[in-house]
Write a structure and sequence with these properties.
The complex is a heterodimer of chains A (256) and B (244).
Chain A (H helix, E strand, L loop, with lengths): L14 H4 L2 H16 L6 H18 L3 H8 L3 H8 L2 H4 L4 E7 L2 E6 H26 L3 H10 L4 H31 L5 H32 L16 H21 L1
Antiparallel strand pairs in A: 1-2
Helix pairs in contact in A: 2-7, 2-11, 3-7, 3-11, 4-7, 5-7, 8-9, 9-10
Chain B lengths: L2 E11 L5 E11 L3 E5 L6 H8 L6 E6 L2 E2 L5 H7 E4 L3 H4 L5 H11 L4 H14 L15 H13 L5 E5 L7 H13 L3 E5 L3 H7 L2 E6 L2 E7 H5 L2 H6 L14
Parallel strand pairs in B: 3-8, 3-9, 6-7, 7-8
Antiparallel strand pairs in B: 1-2, 1-4, 4-5, 9-10
Helix pairs in contact in B: 4-5, 4-6, 5-6
The chains are: A mainly alpha (256), B alpha/beta (244).
Chain lengths: 256, 244
Amino acid sequence: MHHFYIDEYSDLESPLHRLDPRVKIITFFSFVLFIIFTSPRSYFTFFLYGCVLCALIGFSRIPWRFVLAHSLVIAPFVLMVAVFIPFLKKGQVAGAYSFGSINLTVTYDGLIVFWNILVKSYLSIICVIIMMASTKFTNFLRALEKMRTPKIFTMILSFMYRYVFVIIDELMEMRQAKEARSIGGTKWFHTKVLANMLGVLFIRAYEQGEAVYLAMCARGFQGEIKTMDRLKISGFDIVFSCIIFAALISIRILAG
Amino acid sequence: MTKIIEINNLDYSYPDGTKALSGISLDVSEGESVGIIGPNGAGKTSLLLHLNGILDGKGSVKICGLKVENKNLPFIRSKVGLVFQDPDSQLFMPTVFDDVSFGPINMDMPKDKVLSAVEKALGEVDMLKAKEKIAHHLSFGEKKRVSIATVLSMNPAILALDEPTGNLDPKHRKKLIEFINNARLTRIIATHDLDLVLKVCSRVVILDKGRLVSQGASRDILSNKPLLEAHELELPLSLPENQC
């Protein structure tokens, strides 16, 4: 069955894809820090950051549509947090509206904070999308492991990545089996059936977990998952991150 | 021939009290290929799970002369390559490489040996090209083959396969049969696929309701219609007697 994969475009051939995942994580994390620590009124700096990100997307050959579509995923969350700020912040009033007995005033300071949140979150999410889309999730986990992320955390992510699709497949199959036998029925009835399906899914996931544990024991598992470190940092990785850092620093110096 | 598996009077009940195995005694010689057949719930999988101490019943199981008990488990688990029926249970690591290297790394093999063991195991099942692939992106037949590679990389002496041809298409089934026939290991195969048993096993054991009810040369057992029918089995289709 077809699924949406977080690393759908990680098999493309590009300089960005070839980067060591550790270098990529550090570089993009620093990029996000640069974005966060930029003054909200340095509009030109944000524009230049945007240009660098566009260049990276171009290099990576990840389709623009994919990046744009995924960047909108966080929009509702950001808007939900940010939309009230222009009304709540005190300062010079930019406009006032009244709806019956409710008076709303928008301040300039509030608008600046609103813009600050919007632009920074948007640029940051683009950074994350480029990083994740150009890295195989397994390599990303390996990099996290190498960078001393607690093993239990990376293992949970790794099992999740391995089994989430198995579970989605099971859910889809159950749904098809249900559809094949569904004739009529009230909305309430279908909701109840869905609840049962989820229950079955939990039990199956639990059983799968037990079977996996047995399979692990059969291959010598003794309480600690060991994996092989196969990552290597090359000259290209260092040159790439130096270029990005140089670009970021000169943007800060030149554009303020 | 030296006995590589010695099972003596093995009893096992599941935690809910269901009797899974009772009084099983079975010896397997080195290099032999044994088929375990029987109806659903006969205890075939439970028997395989005793071979490397996943289940621990009453009675004794010895592998390569060593009793299956806690202190011998690391050695025994490196000797018995157990391939589960469901490849989604067998393949639990994110990539094929990680999965095939899981056993060797647990055996504390040095890095270069792990790499060569992985290459060799994947080569044997013709899956070298999938080394960096993610398990979920493989077809069912590919998953089955990689599952076998995950134990071959541990260089086992015994290959224990649980329903190896289940859900496989004819082409992959044929390839798997070729592979099992060419493997120079002791093979013990629990299956419903009697044609597979006829092709790859020299000896057959029938289990029914947890008891070992009959054993003998594959051709003799699998052509004995009354015996097979008494245990809810039927003659393999490929037997000349069964063809119109």
